């Protein structure tokens, strides 16, 4: 009884800690009202522009830098509104975090990732999408990057409005490609690179879904379907948490800390193992203590996965801030460098103030507009609990590691959402399998018609099709929009 009271006190303490963010959640619901959120976002964009004017007001291209900074701030807001939901959605959908707690954690860790481990050097014109020598002059290059930045931001904004999580990096890639084609023709595009990016549309969600489904099968077969679930959990939960710790250590070494330390895949795996094994050993007595007094049912198992799930969401946010922010504000850095030096064929470094705009923009975007996509990913695709959400979070880290080993291009957005789909479709398959077995055992008592089968689908097909369509058209839509914007800019300037 004392153990049960201790567990209850532990959960109450966690609930109180998370409840401290209730004011933040109330504020988020307030700013989600019509015009309040957009008004605050507009103020942030204007402040970013004024800041750029204070720094570059005496230079010859001050107006260009100010406009580009405003566009970069707008893009950062959209990253926060759309991309971050993929990291926080599963934890919120599983009720491991409140919406306010998720927003607070994401703001801290996204900003830390962008400012501490971000600033990676991006190659000329967004990772070699178009050939620099094909662009005639510096002014044409600047307008092409302007068009790319604006088109990517507009597309992500539209995707957020319709409730589709899309890859902001792919949006930037599409914008750069479209502007490059409009400025220098189709020959300017690096088509092998674009082919690899197109391949990631399939590779990322399939790999993410397969890894997530595989871990859910492991949890079901080794813990949930056992007669003594608590005894099984005492064996397997420490192993699973150790795998998670090792995977995230490897993931961060490969992706999140490359600005601090350049590590190879074998070294990253060694770092992961050196962290994962001790965490596994530490979790053995911790899990044994947490599981004392728990009833032998599935609901009791959720307690054991709550804290690891929160930790995984925080680590994913850190890695996202370190990587995707740099990609998204890369065109802004390219514009600033080209306007200052007149050169656009060299590698583009990301100034610290650009990363600050990216970090603050993500935080504001998440706070103002993020809850819609967080709810979509966390609860509207399929029903998540801590165990299923844990599988989604773990799949994001492991898929990136495997893809790095195989040299495959992947999208963190597609991996995370693919993991949610993978969990949902595995649940459908598992439920159907168990239903068939029940029919064989008791055919007279188990019979479902076509209507009942449709009702029992565990993945919402409408969201599945909407998200799939948004993924497929992200690059061509952003490219088309960018080409049109560049053409309008050129016509206006001409």
Describe this structure in words.
The chain is mainly α and 494 residues long. The chain has one domain (2-493). The chain has helices at residues 2-19, 22-31, 36-56, 62-82, 85-93, 99-116, 124-128, 138-162, 168-184, 191-224, 229-256, 265-290, 298-341, 352-369, 371-380, 386-406, 412-441, 450-455, 461-493. Helix 4 (62-82) runs parallel beside helix 8, helix 6 (99-116) runs parallel beside helix 13 (298-341) and helix 6 runs antiparallel to helix 14. It is elongated. The chain starts with a helix and ends with a helix. The model has no long low-confidence stretch (mean pLDDT 82).
When the domains are counted, the total is 1
Our Rg estimate from Cα atoms comes to 24 Å
How far apart the termini lie comes to 80 Å
Question: Unreliable runs, pLDDT <50, ≥5 residues?
Answer: none
**Number of H- or I-type helical stretches:** 19
Oligomer: single chain
Which structural category do the helix and sheet elements fall into?
mainly alpha
Instruction: Write down the overall geometry.
Output: elongated
Percent strand: under 5%
In round numbers, the mean pLDDT is: 82
Order of helices and strands: HHHHHHHHHHHHHHHHHHH
Give a short account of the largest sheet.
Answer: none
Task: Tally the beta strands.
Answer: 0
- Helicity range of the residues? over 70%
Subcellular location: Membrane
Organism: Roseovarius nanhaiticus
Membrane topology: Multi-pass membrane protein
InterPro entries: Phos_transporter
């Amino acid at each position: 009884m004392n153990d049960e009271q201790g567990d209850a006190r532990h959960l109450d303490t966690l609930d109180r800690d998370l409840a401290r963010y209730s004011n933040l959640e109330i504020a988020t619901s307030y700013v989600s009202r019509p015009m309040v959120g957009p008004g605050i976002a507009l103020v942030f964009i204007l402040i970013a522009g004024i800041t750029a004017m204070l720094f570059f007001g005496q230079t010859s291209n001050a107006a260009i830098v100010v406009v580009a900074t405003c566009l970069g701030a707008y893009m950062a807001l959209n990253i926060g509104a759309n991309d971050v939901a993929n990291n926080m959605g599963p934890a919120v959908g599983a009720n491991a975090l409140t919406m306010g707690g998720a927003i607070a954690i994401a703001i801290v860790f996204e900003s830390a990732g962008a400012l501490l481990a971000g600033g990676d050097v991006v190659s000329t014109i967004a990772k070699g999408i178009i050939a620099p020598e094909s662009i005639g002059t510096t002014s044409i290059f600047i307008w092409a990057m302007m068009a790319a930045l604006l088109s990517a931001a507009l597309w992500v904004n539209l995707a957020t409005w319709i409730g589709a999580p899309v890859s902001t990096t792919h949006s930037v890639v599409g914008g750069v490609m479209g502007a490059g084609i409009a400025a220098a023709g189709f020959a300017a595009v690096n088509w092998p690179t674009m082919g690899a990016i197109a391949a990631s549309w399939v590779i990322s969600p399939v790999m993410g879904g397969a890894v997530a489904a595989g871990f859910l099968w492991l949890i079901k077969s080794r813990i949930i379907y056992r007669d003594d679930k608590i005894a099984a959990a005492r064996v397997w939960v420490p192993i699973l948490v150790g795998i998670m710790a090792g995977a995230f250590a490897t993931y961060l070494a490969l992706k999140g800390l490359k600005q601090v330390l350049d590590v190879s895949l074998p070294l990253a795996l060694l770092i992961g193992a050196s962290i994962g094994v001790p965490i596994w050993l530490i979790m053995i007595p911790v899990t044994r203590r947490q599981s004392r007094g728990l009833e032998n049912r599935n609901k009791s198992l959720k307690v054991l996965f709550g804290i690891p799930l929160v930790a995984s969401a925080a680590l994913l946010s850190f890695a996202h801030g370190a990587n995707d922010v740099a990609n998204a504000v890369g065109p802004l850095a390219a514009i600033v460098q080209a306007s200052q030096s007149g050169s656009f064929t060299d590698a583009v470094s990301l100034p610290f103030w650009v990363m600050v705009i990216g970090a603050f923009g993500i935080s504001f975007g998440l706070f103002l507009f993020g809850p819609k996509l967080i709810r979509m990913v966390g609860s509207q695709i399929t029903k998540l609990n801590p165990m299923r959400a844990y599988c989604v979070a773990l799949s994001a880290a492991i898929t990136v590691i495997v893809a790095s080993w195989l040299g495959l291009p992947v999208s963190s957005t597609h991996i995370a959402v693919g993991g949610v789909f993978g969990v949902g479709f595995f649940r459908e398959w598992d439920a159907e399998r168990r239903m068939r077995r029940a029919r064989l055992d008791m055919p007279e008592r188990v019979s479902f018609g076509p209507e009942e089968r449709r009702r029992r689908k565990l993945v919402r097909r409408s969201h599945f099709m909407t998200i799939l369509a948004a993924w497929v058209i992200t690059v061509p839509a952003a490219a088309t929009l960018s080409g049109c914007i560049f053409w309008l800019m050129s016509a206006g300037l001409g």
